[in-house]
Amino acid sequence: MQLQNLEVFKLLTSNLKFKLMITVNDISVQFGGTTLFSDVSFAINENDKIALMGKNGAGKSTLLKIVAGESKPSTGSVSVPKEAVVAYLPQHLLTKDGSTVMEEASKAFGEIFKMKSEIDEINEQLTIRTDYESDAYMKLIERVSDLSEKYYAIEEVNYEAEVEKILVGLGLEREAVTRQTPEFSGGWRMRIELAKILLRKPDLILLDEPTNHMDIESIQWLEEFLINSAKAVVVISHDRAFVDNITNRTIEVTMGRIYDYKAKYSHYLELRKDRRVHQQKAYDEQQRMIADNRTFIDRFKGTFSKTDAVQSRVKMLEKLVIVQVDEVDTSALKLKFPPAARSGQYPVIVKDLSKSYGDHVVFKDANIVIERGQKVAFVGKNGEGKSTMIKAIMKEIGIDSGSLEIGHNSQIGYFAQNQASLLNENATIFETIDDIAVGDVRTQIKNILGAFMFHGDDITKKVKVLSGGEKTRLAMIKLLLEPVNLLILDEPSNHLDMKTKDIIKEALRDFDGTLILVSHDRDFLDGLATKVFEFGNKRVIEHFEDIAGFLAHKKMDSMKEIEKK
Fold first, then answer.
1. CATH C-level class of 348-564
2. 21-109+156-255 has which CATH code?
3. In the prediction, which pLDDT does 157 show?
4. Where in the chain are the domains?
5. 307-319 helix and 265-300 helix, angle to the nearest 10 degrees
6. Which of 40, 58, 83, 276 could crosslink 253 through cysteines, CB 3.0-4.6 Å?
7. Do strands 514-518 and 486-490 pair parallel, antiparallel, or not at all (unpaired)?
8. In sequence order, what are the residues at sequence separation of 6 or more whose Cβ sits closer than 8 angstroms to the Cβ of residue 541?
């Protein structure tokens, strides 16, 4: 007996569809005696575009990992339909070396190719075997039937064309798909991982800070894709415009619980403000009631005629559930870091510098002169050479021609895009800072940590339990406390909430050394950088003005336009 026509399975399954409904059922997470959140329940439907919001450390990434099946809750469960394809992009992920971009991205279809290979192998066995009545033969038929049902339900596609379309959409040049992945920055390699996810056409896409390493054009493409082509989406992002454009629902994680709003982010902010006003009113009223009852108890305690009334009010207060008001961070400590040692007049001098990877020219004849105390910005599209220039300054890569000089007594502090992942996972927050703090600063460690929103028992937490945003915040403190006079920061505001960005920006503004900033965040650069180096078209152009002046000069009103040039 041999299966004659597998097209039957395609006919039978082509119209089979299921309605996505993923349910999160009363999940809780505890670690080290601390409850991150408890009794969290919600459902994800097929047309939901959900923004998962909350401050750094509230548990957003942990919750996303649980929905993705990457982590297990302490209690509760997540129910996912058997047929559903769930794809997850974490904050920190790098592709493995040893393949081209096309080969790496094509791994998205690995399961399909494996399925086809197994079908071919089983059909070959069914052709040559003669034990038609055996259990083993019947199991082969059942297996090939099951696989064929799944395989022929998948639309026929030109896989290579699909891969190229997605990669180009995410900002990669067509000729670059044949380049090796090690030639690309961490940001680009994150995008390759995102491409693999999008190519799987999942029923639910889970994205943790997907725009951190993207230029504006790529962000816009991703927005269009998620709006028009994706099914259900849950995203964590501190990019307000991005979440506003793509989401129709907001789930806030705060103080160990969630609030679920059928509203986009900007509307959610208004609703959240109203919610807190009502919470505060209810809290104040409850506190007045508690005070009145305690006054009554104190006044009539021991009075025979009032014994029952006193006891009744005591029991009522004991059972009372205190109204909680959502926290609003008001930390505003102004940080003062030790003065930077004096460097030479010109910490960085770049003359006629060129760099290529094979036939790919990153930039040629680049000239950069940075004076002591200047704060400069490197701006431009991804892949135009900003991170490459920094790697050259750091002597991490060689140069093809030209020269690069680091000035006398320049003490470099470097914040890479993956800096958070380099922290000692087994050290506590306090130990991480105490190990590098020197002099009088050591007496201020708790205050400094407090300014960066590490309060109370937080400082005893191990680094390995921190969120991506918390790790980035800690790595920034660590860097700023080191004795350096030349700070080089590559996308330092990634993974950070708005409050943390403001604190770090203020600290950098007061830094009396030299600062080089690579960032797509115009608000972060505004008022911080006093000179701009624009990377694009294999050139580096110097602009003797701050970001605001640069934008005005270019007759642009946003970083969006910068990056389209």
1. alpha beta
2. 3.40.50.300
3. 60
4. 21-109+156-255, 266-319, 348-564
5. 150
6. 58
7. parallel
8. 533, 534
